[in-house]
Amino acid sequence: MGRTHKKVSNPLERKAWTRLTAAEGVEEALQMLEGRWKLLILFQLFGGEVKRFSELERAIPAVTQKMLAQQLRCMEKDGIVRRKVYPEIPPKVEYALTEWGQSLCPALDALLKWAELRPS
Hints:
Layout: H1 19-32, H2 38-45, E1 51-52, H3 53-59, H4 65-77, E2 81-86, E3 92-97, H5 99-102, H6 104-116
Antiparallel strand pairs: 1-3, 2-3
């Protein structure tokens, strides 16, 4: 078996953050959650919930079908949501959080608690 000269990094290895790279990393993470509907979608799917498109539509009545589809596609591309299509007529599509997406729950919970501490 041939060897490569490139060093393969371990994804579990902790990065040595600087102030600049930490700010950039947080900004990148926040950009993945940017959008009016993404947090509402996340909270609908937390706890291992699996929902069909129509269920998400009913749970978030102010969102349009087009915007819901766009936000779900974007979250799927980012690895936060997984989409499962069943080969039946009519098509059945379910959405759930990936393991990585589910791991956002404690971070958002901490952010919510932080916001509650805001002085009046």
